[in-house]
């Protein structure tokens, strides 16, 4: 037996991106068939689950296994001319044949005593053994078709007795017995009849319409029982599906009618001439040749095998495969035959010089075809559905040769060949899931093309699925060389327990020796790596070198507050808010030392004491705050601070304000010191604020102050008018 690619059996040998998934696969039988076809040609076939019977033009019956090997001693010379038809009983023990030589031959495969040769002296076109012929007794009967439909059965004395069941309009052209032996379908020149064997009556005629120029006599009528009650007929270019239905009690009571009737449920016209018909689940398999105009020199077209889905009087082609059978150009529609092993869904297509077996694609076949056509997602979908118990009903429901992993690996290789690295990385997560061994085996494929970065987001990193540390280190090294930001992100994201941190630190240090770009990113990564190894001094050094604010996180996380004192100014320069927050919340350094350390940088000192004062109500550093507010935030904070605090030397504060000519603050301080006269003069002469002057006099309620204010306004009409109006 030799298996061929689909292209050997399709009319379009050129591949296409939109090629439709095939429904059938084909195997050409060879072995001993080669020598048989070298000597003669096939005229008919009958298949049984145990063997094949092939009839030839020379009158031989060849008994073969399903691979085309001759079964030893089973080549029978039954006739002198072509064999017309072969019938096999249900158990595969008896074979019956007929021929135009007028002989009927019944052969027992196991006992010569039961062989039978009958010479009828007329053309015999078809024969049917009782399916239970092997049981003996009343079952030892067969039916022949010539000018009549004749039953041959044994009498009480064991003699063979012919009984004419029906007369035929012309020759009986074909017949088919149900597997339970109840009904026989047969055809003549005018149509198809079904005969009830048990009741010995005909159930009626299904007349066949002749189309213009196409006589039914030119075409073989193809009959097939799909089951004990469903008859399939393919004749000329018409398909008819009939159901054997039992009549109702009312019908039987009123008229003398057969118990059963034949009900044609579907009639379909085809675009081809039919050579054979067979069932496939709820569909039909049809063998035929396309209709082409006749011409003297024209060659016959390729035969085609169709799968059709029928409903009522309409059908839809599921697939149509053109078959490259040997010497097909020389043969017509009646030269081809189709037989089927129903239980195995194997369809035997016979030409005079060829036998091809078609069978539906099972899940493995479908998956293999999808892989070969780079339809990996469809293949994986089939496998997923099969795992979930939703597999196809055609063929085996559980793939035997393919798994999600094997197909996934082929898909992975395809994506890598196509340069679709990111898609390949995502695929790994779907296919390998938590299989550490698969991850480790396949990830080297990414390393070989320097695309570990494409798979790194998806590799497992959890305790229940952890890879060899070398895998994580390989990925880090690739990022180190090719993607600085990605390297830093992985160092931050990955648990350091996944890899050898010291090895990675050494790699970073070596890389920095020759690195000209992105140095800060590598130094930041180095700081994190040092912290993983508890080398906090080096980690701090890296952060401070970068002026990176994550240094505060490091300090808090690992309780490194003691380092702040020696580098206080550096930390303040980096982020004074975070530094002050640490100083006040954790109090790692006494405030006095902080003030001493910061006194050389008044801005830092101001920021620290300003926050310190909010949390310390004792007024410890109010003296220092006066001068600092005067420098850095006089407008918003100095005067309110002077008013609320009792913990500063007033004269020293006045001196600072006098030096900077901060008149509102001087007025307040002079008032507190009792020097209201000088304070009023500042309001009138420096601030030039009559409203303030009047309020100041009212506040202190001093007659001398009022007199000073009035005297100041006497020779100034504007001020005098304002003073009089207000009073």
Automatic annotation (TrEMBL):
Coiled coil: none annotated. PROSITE patterns: CHCR. It is found in: Lysosome. Keywords: Lysosome, Protein transport, Transport. The keyword Chaperone does not apply. It comes from the Eukaryota. CHCR repeats lie at residues 580-722. Residues 24-358 form the Vps41 beta-propeller domain. One of its GO terms (cellular component) is HOPS complex. GO terms for biological process: cellular response to starvation; endosomal vesicle fusion; macroautophagy; protein targeting to vacuole. This is Vps41 beta-propeller domain-containing protein. It comes from Acanthoscelides obtectus.
